Amino acid sequence: MTGQRRTARSRQIVDGFTVLLALILLAVAWPTLHLTHKVPPAAAPFIAGFAAFPILLVRVNPQLGWAVSAGSALLIALAVPNQPGNTLPFQVVHIVALFALVLAVTVFAPVRTVAVVWVTTALLMATTMARTGDSFAESGFGWPLAVTGLVAFGLLVRWVALSRRALQRSEEETELERARRAILEEKARIARDLHDVVAHHMSMVVVQAQTAPYRIDGLSADARAEFESIGSGARAALNEVRGLLGVLRSDGELPEHAPQPRAADVPGLLDAAQRAGVPLIRSVDGALDAVPETTGLALYRIVQESLANAARHAPGAPVEVRIAVGPDLTVSIANDRSTAARPSDQPSTAGTGITGMQARAAAVGGVLTATPRPDGGFHVLARLPLAPA
């Protein structure tokens, strides 16, 4: 925003200076026109205007300004007679404005336009200035050489400006690359920490659950099924963690590797919870395949977190999950009060699960409420839009 204001301020200064210069040129051209050319007093302001006012277009449209200035110069040279002793076909003010417009065209216009302006102006000066041939300036070579030198100077200024602009772009790209590299390094560090802390312990859970039936004698069928369920849940979670690690370690060019559960994966999540021993009552009304990906991801995470909270804070209590796909997606997860005693090493702590679920619902334009029930249970209700918010 500051750069834009500075640029606008610079343009205002340039425009103000251009208007002031045009007025000065007009103030010089009008009173002195009768000294150089034989013109009626009524035509003097118009001829002086053609000499001075085209410079007003030097920033807005220098090609048009040059065309008006060059055309009026040729017309004046052919139609307006000079005063005795004056060898210039048009005023010095006209030459100053014409050369200023040639320089502006050289700096800002396309190269083809620059070539046309250069050749045309050189021919104009060569044909109108060669009156007597007594000096080099009037011999047909001096003024075209002056135009050529002016165009060469303009091309040099143009090259310097383009070089500085390219250098600035290169510096900006370098800064962006440096910032991007810093982000990637931070993501890689987080991935290492996550791998060391979470993936290692979850891998140990999987190994212990799979080897428990071989290490412990006399396990019942229910106990073996319980260990198998623990292993399956831990493996699924470990796969998600590995996918997340892949996203953190990548540079963002492979989004297909990101763990993105969909709404259609929710029944599998409910099956896993039932295998883990959660008394589950489930109801799905509508086609989950029609749910958009972002809304489906929010639905999956909300159900996942709600089931985990119910299993943690109300072990053994029945959990009722109802999902309805209509104009909006409605999900309700309610659990009764637990009848089992909480283990002594598992205190009741206030975590961030509910806050995270509310944030996920809000991210897709939905709303989530989580309230205790009168019977001691808990109820999570979320409404998520099917259309993008």
TrEMBL record:
The chain crosses the membrane at residues 12-33, 39-57, 64-82, 88-108, 142-161. Residues 186-251 form the Signal transduction histidine kinase subgroup 3 dimerisation and phosphoacceptor domain. GO terms for molecular function: ATP binding; phosphorelay sensor kinase activity; protein dimerization activity. Its EC number is 2.7.13.3. It catalyses: ATP + protein L-histidine = ADP + protein N-phospho-L-histidine. It is an enzyme of class 2 (transferase). It holds the Pfam family HisKA_3. This is histidine kinase. SUPFAM superfamilies: ATPase domain of HSP90 chaperone/DNA topoisomerase II/histidine kinase. It comes from the Bacteria. Gene3D superfamilies: 1.20.5.1930, Histidine kinase-like ATPase, C-terminal domain. Residues 297-387 form the Histidine kinase/HSP90-like ATPase domain. GO terms for cellular component: membrane. Keywords: ATP-binding, Kinase, Membrane, Nucleotide-binding, Phosphoprotein, Transferase, Transmembrane, Transmembrane helix, Two-component regulatory system.
